Amino acid sequence: MGGKMSQFWKTSDQKESEGKLILPGQLDAEDEIANYASINGGDSAIPGMLGAGILRRSCVNCPTCQGTGRIPREQEEQLVALIPYGDQRLKPRRTKLYVCLAVTICLLMTSLSIFFLFPRSITVLPAGLNASSISFDVNTTSIYLNMTNVLNLTNSNFYLVTAVQLDVEVLHQSLVVGKTIVKTLLNVSPLQSGQIYYMVASIISDDNTYNICTWTKVRVHNVLLHIQGTLTCTYLCHSEQVAFEDYQYVDCRGNATLPHPLYRRPP
Length: 267
Description:
Layout: H1 2-41, H2 52-58, H3 95-117, E1 122-137, E2 142-155, E3 161-172, E4 175-188, E5 193-204, H4 207-214, E6 222-235, E7 238-251
Antiparallel strand pairs: 1-2, 2-5, 3-4, 3-6, 6-7
């Protein structure tokens, strides 16, 4: 009877020792699985803890993080994350919308650039005679005529236009009687107009014209002059010459033409 009791106590002691050997390892594995599930699933992983023994048999710990779900900071630049081919992050979203939007914006910007930067005409119109002074040389039968004329400059562009030089010739009976070159610097704002004053000194050496201007029996003392010239304008690093011409009558009876208000001729 004493032998049986000793065997019973030995058996119970062996079971306790075996339990002590088995339970810690099992609990550690279950804790690792529970931690891994809580990281990936949160509260939804709690029901999975009931089957920790089954998961332990079917799952293998990650060799990199050892099942913790975390990697050492010093290995962040060495490790590469693999994404499955069917992952949603690899599928393009709204690609057609973005492409169409980019093309539309490019076309719109190109159209606006062409519309605003396309060169338009620069209109130059003579505004007529502003003032004149006349003197006569009896010995040479010559007429000395000084005229001050005005040009109207219209900028139809959406950018600044600068007038830099004006070349003018005055003709009488197809002969050049006066010439001038004016270095000017007139800035005309977009879609605005400006005026340029210029003076031309002319010498008319013609007996018939001299008689018309000095003969008192003649009531009309007018001289027809042909004025032509070019205006050089610059814009957007580009230079352009605009030609103009005009015919005007000048009263050569004396200093009768005084400065008068300017007017704009219709185009």
